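Sample intake sheet
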Amino acid sequence: MKQGNKKEGFFRSARRFLHDNIYINKVPSYGNTIFYSFGFILMTCFLILLITGILMVFFSKPWWLTSSLGIYVRSVHMWAAQAFMLFLVLHLFVTFSTSAFRKKKLPWVVGSIMLFLFVVQTELGYTLRGDFSSQWRALQGADFWNGNYIGSFFNMLNYNQVFGVHVLLIPLLLLLLVGLHYGVVRHRGISKPYRKDIKYKMVEANHAMLYVRAGIVAAVILVLAFFIQSPFIPAVTAQQVSQQQPNIFAQTLIAEFNHSSDTATYVDSIKPYNFDTREVYVTKPYLQYLSVNGGKNELSLFNSKSPDIRAKMIRDASDYFASNRTLDVSNPNPLVSVASSLTVMAQSGLYDSQLKNDLQGDNPTYLYRFLSDTGYLDEKADNLGLSLENYGMIKDEKGAGIAPPNSWWMFPFNFMDNTILKNDPNQDRDGGEIIGLLMLLIATLPWLPYVNKIPDKLRLYKIFWRVKKSD
C-alpha cells in the first residue's frame, strides 16, 4: 500500500507541476479542437526526431544503412520529419487564417524562422543518409549555397560539417525557438477572436485529448516506418564508374588535367572548388599508383616536352578515349598511359580511397565533384527521375520500393527552376533571392498593410471559428 501511495503521490505531483508550470489551462472553446492541437503534435514529432537522431548518431552510418533495426529507426526519423513539416505548415495556416499573427507578432516570426530552419534541416538530413540521393542532393544543394555566396564557409559536400550543423547547431536553435514560442503563447494564452461576431466561451483545456491525438500521430509514424521504409539506392563510387564506363572515366581525367572540366571551370570559383584539379585528380593519385605498382613516370616525360607538344598530347589523349579505344598503360602518348593507369587504379577501388584521404575526415568533396564531372550522376539521376527537370527535389528514387512523399515542401524551388528560371544562367542565385524575399514576406506579414488583412477578407476564420447566425 505504501509503495502504491508513493507512486500515486509522484504522479499527482507530476500532474500538478505540469498544470502549474507547463500547461495552458484555460482556452477558448474552440481551443480543444484538433486544429489547436497541432503545436503539441509538433513537439511530439520533434521529440521522436531527437530520440531517433541520437540513436543514429550513437550507432553510426553502417548501422542505419544495413541493420534491420537501424533501417527501421532511420525510417521512423524520416516519417517524423514528414509529420513535423506537415503539422508545422498546418499550424502556420491556422494562425494565418485566424489572423492571430496580428496580435502575436513574435510567435509568428519565431514560427516563420522555424519553418525556414526545418526546410534547411531536412535537406541536410537527406545529404547525410548515405545513398545516391544523398550524393545528388548534396551537389544540388552545394550549387545553391555557392550561387548565394554561402558556399565559401558552408560546404554541402563536407559530410562532417553538414553532420555537425544537422545534429547540433540547428536542433539547438529549434529548441530555443520552440521554448520562446511556447513561452509567449503560454503567457498570453491562445489567441481570442478579434471579431465580435465569433461565438466562444472560456473552458478548461482538455490535456488528455492532446496526448491522445499526439499518440495517434506517433503510432502512425511508427507503423508507416515499418511498412514503408526509407528508400535506399547505393551511392555511386569511382570504382563503379571506372568499371562501367572506363573511357568516360579516363576522358574526365584528361579534362581535369587540362583544367577544362566542370569543376575546374566552376563559375562560383570559391572554396571548396578553387583547388587544382590536375594536382588532386591526376598528379597525386598517379604518384600513389607508381609507389604501389612501380614503372616509368609518364608525367615526367610529358612535362619534359615543349608546350606545343604537350598541347597536342592532351588533344590526342582526349580524342583517344572519346573514340572508345581500350585502356593502354603502355601507350606512346604519356597522358593516355597515365589516364589508363588511373582508371585501372579506380577499378580496384584505390582511387576512391586516395581522393577521400586527401581531405581529413569524412569529406567526399573531391570524390563527389569528380563523379559529377563524369556525367554519370546526371545520367543516373535522369533514369531515377531525380533531375531538377523531373521535379527531383520533391521525389525519391524509383525502384526503391514504395516511395514516401519525400520533400514535397521543395515544390516552390522545383517550380521556379522549371518555369521562370528555366533558362536563367544565374538560376541558383536568383532562386535563392526569390525564396529569401518570400521568407521575409512571411516573417514580416504582421506589419504589412493590406496584405495582413487578406485572411480576414477571405473569411478563412470560418474554417476554425463558429460565427453567430446574425453574421
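Comment: The radius of gyration is 28 Å. Residues 68-97 form the longest helix (30 residues).
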